[in-house]
Design a protein that fits this description.
The complex is a heterodimer of chains A (381) and B (304). With 381 residues, chain A is α+β, with helices and mostly antiparallel strands. Chain A has ten helices and 20 strands. Chain A folds into two domains: 238 residues, 3-Layer(aba) Sandwich (Rossmann fold); 113 residues, Nucleic acid-binding proteins (OB fold (Dihydrolipoamide Acetyltransferase, E2P)). Helix content of chain A is 26%, strand content 34%. In chain A, strand 12 and strand 13 form a beta hairpin. The N terminus and C terminus of chain A are likely disordered. Chain B contains 14 helices and no strands. In chain B, helix 7 packs across helix 9 and helix 11 packs antiparallel against helix 14. The longest helix of chain B has 31 residues. Classes of the chains: A alpha+beta (381), B mainly alpha (304). Chains A and B meet through helix 3, helix 4 and helix 6 of A and helix 10 and helix 11 of B. Chain A: Keywords: ATP-binding, Nucleotide-binding, Transport. Chain A: It comes from Actinospica acidithermotolerans.
Chain lengths: 381, 304
């Protein structure tokens, strides 16, 4: 695998650039703002994931960068050269579409060669580069088939090959794995990572899947209703999310609405209906304010004795997951909590739950869904 | 499913419907019977009757009517006259509908109004269209008056457009274009917009996107559209009489058949003419459909 893969990596070297600077790019449809001003600087060779639920503006951002949607405001500069005024065909970015958008009437080889043909690259050179990329995505034996004769994963690889054969400075990927089944998704994820590493392609990757984003990206941009909620490396976001919104995306499935009873230098005691425990404060929270507390399912433990219990809950749904049980339980106040435990639990069991103060993150309560907006958009760069 | 397996013991025989389905018989298709009978009575029977009649001319044996048609240069020429009208008319209709429907893919203000205006001629009868053409393109119609005012043609020497080939061609375009446009429009909207976007990100300008992506995917649809508008144009009759020159330059095959059957009361000859007309039409359609097989005709939904 490494042998065949190394050869094309030498022959195909992506055009390098130093930085792609997005300055306040935004997009509005009439009164609806799909993307609020977004600032982001992408360094050459970086893999950046735009993460957010559907409708958060991530695809809008990608299409605007590709030039498929005109910007409402802002500018895009590639190494100081302004490119947002160029039509998509002049930008030279590669794009992988969610539905692949392969040309159904052209063979795999001709699909991949399409961009080279548009650039009037010589026949021999086209032949050489297409063969190299076919090797890279391991589709040599399918080169003469039509896209309709390929499986989803193969079509996906053709789409990637078609985008990277031009050696573009930037590859844009719009949820490329969302149409694949779970096993194939894992394979292709590794494939994309491998191609990125070998090729050194700067990649902007849109996804709603946090696992995909965490495992692939060097940096993550979490979007919420068209605004940047947080930018950072996977470990920064995973370990210290700045808002309950980001926390929810990073695997903190339990978001409890409580009240801060006392706050003292990064630690807080939070209380609610039958609930009382200590947590860690990252942003400014004042005593007495209503807060949202984020806890991961695996950090919610079943207490040894009633005395240590933060709160009680009644197990409602218990799923067997092999090494552990996934339990959905209801607190006395009626809010649902999720936890994982190796102990055998039966539905209806009364559970005393406890949580490590370092593992419970306390955030100031957000007013609305869109409240997770970046308090400091300047950091987005 | 489990309920069905339980009852097998009580009811050893499956329902009649299921047993028929096993053999590929769907009883609901019986509902088509009235329609099939009507088709047989109103289309197949007259056709076969006419075919039989065409082989029973008053003189000349079994193929007498056919040899009479091809023996007379005037009647034989009607095939070429008709083709000379129908092929250019269909080509123009399809050719015009491509750029217009291509421009009308996206959403824009006034699209519905424009669509309505383009399609309205369908609702006009041939007679109304013919009358309009006579008035507008006639020797003292607006068109000629405008040309005279502009000094492009001399006063008293209007250009002849009606009662001639051009009048019929105009009429075929006016009545045939909406069909061609509607068909092309729907074929185009079946091509996933992401394909052109993908081509754009690969460096294709608008002409290249059309030339290498949209047009090849549209071509089979265009050939089908051509066939349909061709059939409409080939059977031209009223406008060939009203705005054409039915005894000369627009003496189309349907007029020939009509005159033989209902003016000369030579039914077998009229039937033979109609059969020749059908054969000529099928020949052209067969050719076009044969060509169509060489192109990609699969899904154009973007996913390949």
């Amino acid at each position: 695998m490494t042998d065949t893969a190394q050869t094309p990596a030498k022959t195909l070297d992506a055009q390098r650039f130093n930085e792609l600077r997005l300055q306040g790019i935004s997009r509005a449809y009439g009164a609806h703002t799909a993307l609020h001003p977004l600032d982001l600087t992408v360094r050459g060779g970086e893999f950046i994931a735009l993460l957010g639920p559907s409708g958060c503006g991530k695809t809008t951002a990608l299409n605007s960068i590709a030039g498929l949607l005109p910007l409402t405001a802002g500018s895009i500069e590639l190494d100081g050269r302004r490119i947002d005024t160029l039509p998509p065909e002049k930008r030279g970015f590669g794009m992988v579409f969610q539905n692949y958008a392969l040309f159904p009437h052209l063979s795999v080889r001709r699909n991949i060669a399409f961009g080279l043909r548009m650039r009037k690259v010589s026949k021999a050179e086209t032949e050489r580069r297409v063969s190299a990329v076919l090797d890279l995505v391991r589709l040599n034996e399918h080169a003469h088939k039509l896209p309709g004769q390929l499986s989803g994963g193969q079509q996906q690889r053709v789409a990637i090959a078609r985008a990277i054969v031009l050696e573009p400075p930037l590859v844009l990927m719009d949820e490329p794995l969302s149409n694949l089944d779970a096993a194939l998704r894992l394979d292709m994820r590794a494939e994309i990572r491998r191609i990125h590493q070998e090729f050194g392609l700067t990649t902007l990757y849109v996804t709603h899947d946090q696992e995909e984003a965490l495992s692939l990206a060097d940096r993550l941009v979490v979007l919420n209703a068209g605004r940047v909620a947080q930018v950072g490396t996977p470990s920064e976001l995973y370990e210290s999310p700045r808002s309950a919104y980001v926390a929810a995306f990073m695997g903190y499935r339990n978001i409890l609405s409580l009240r801060a009873e006392s706050v003292d230098a990064g630690a807080a005691t939070v209380v609610g209906d039958g609930v009382k425990f200590a947590g860690t404060v990252s942003a400014a929270v004042t005593a007495g304010a209503s807060v949202q507390v984020a806890v991961r399912p695996e950090d919610l433990k079943i207490a040894a004795g009633e005395a240590d219990a933060a709160f009680e809950a009644v197990a409602e749904v218990v799923e067997y997951h092999g090494r552990e049980f996934q339990v959905d339980a209801l607190t006395r106040a009626g809010s649902r909590v999720h936890l994982r435990t190796p102990e055998r639990v039966a539905p209806g069991d009364r559970l005393s739950l406890t949580v490590d103060p370092r593992r419970a993150l306390v955030f100031a309560a957000e007013n609305a869904e869109a409240g997770g907006a970046a308090e400091d958009p300047g950091e987005a760069g | 499913m489990s309920a069905a397996t339980v009852t097998v013991a009580d009811a050893p025989k499956a329902a009649l419907r299921h047993r028929l389905a096993e053999r590929g018989v769907d009883r609901t298709l019986l509902l088509l019977l009235p329609g099939v009978i009507a088709m047989a009575a109103l289309f197949c029977y007259p056709f076969i009757y006419g075919l039989g009649l065409s082989f029973q001319p008053a003189k000349g044996g079994v193929f007498g009517a056919y040899s009479a048609f091809f023996g007379d240069s005037f009647s034989e020429g009607t095939i070429w006259t008709t083709l000379g009208l129908a092929i250019p008319a269909s080509l123009i209709n399809v050719g015009l509908s491509v750029p217009i429907s291509y421009r009308m893919r996206g959403d824009f203000r006034g699209k519905r109004l424009l669509l309505t205006l383009l399609v309205v001629p369908i609702t006009l009868g041939t007679v109304l269209t013919a009358e309009g053409i006579l008035e507008y393109f006639g020797p003292v119609g607006w068109f000629n008056l405008t040309l005279q005012k502009l000094g492009l043609v001399g006063a008293g020497h209007p250009i002849t457009l009606v009662n001639d080939y051009w009048g019929v061609l105009f009429s075929l375009i006016i009545s045939g274009f909406p069909f061609a446009f509607l068909l092309t429009h729907s074929y185009l909207s079946g091509i996933h917009p992401a394909l052109e976007k993908a081509a754009a990100t690969l460096g294709a300008g608008w002409w290249q996107r059309f030339r290498f992506v949209t047009f090849p995917l549209l071509l089979p649809g265009l050939l089908t559209t051509f066939c349909l508008t061709f059939v409409l144009a080939f059977s031209v009759f009223p406008s060939a009489i009203m705005v054409g020159d039915p005894d000369g330059r627009t003496h189309v095959i349907s007029i020939e058949a009509y005159e033989q059957a209902l003016q000369n009361f030579n039914y077998p000859q009229g039937c033979a003419d109609a059969m020749i007309m059908t054969a000529a039409m099928l020949l052209v359609i067969g050719l076009v459909m044969g060509v169509r097989r060489f192109f990609y005709t699969g899904s154009t939904g973007g996913k390949g």
